[in-house]
Amino acid sequence: KWVAEVCRLVQVLEAEIAAGGDENRCVHPSLMRVLKDVVLDTYDLAAQAAACRLLDRLLTNSHRARQLFLSPEAGGAAALVSAVRSSGDGGDVAATAAYRILELLVAAEEEGAKARQELAEERQVAAESEEQLQQRQEVARQVADAGECCVCLDRTKSHALLPCGHLCACMDCAAFLAARASPCPVCRCAIERAVQIFT
Fold it and tell me: Which among 22, 15, 14, 72 is positioned nearest to 38, based on CA atoms?
């Protein structure tokens, strides 16, 4: 008698949802277990068909319903396959529900692949942006460093030392280093002469 009452209530619930009722109220673990049990009940094919139609609607429209019903622990997918194997109207409706679920899974996989591709592209753009930012910061640092003589730390850099080519000294320090044949303060290379750099 209890099974018959549950089957009747599932049929009433399916009719209520089909008439425009709030299907989100049906997404509950207990109800998902009851629907699975009704799908497995081959004695009441009308209730089985109603449960399959209700599951079709819930699984199509609710991610949470799919999580609750199709998880391996819930056994909902196995129940639908078992109903498809059975004969009668319930088997046809279960087959339709199973087909819709497979369509959803394929669509979800395609969306997931697309989302993963977009995420990879965004990460690549972010990495390139980070690299460009670091390059800009390096250029800014070099420009900022270009203003100070590395010998006296007082005047603006204006002369490059040859043959290494480092722009690192002001006019007075470059003349002093070239006259004494001192090594370059950057690379310690012997200085042959100093050349003024115009920017």
Answer: 14
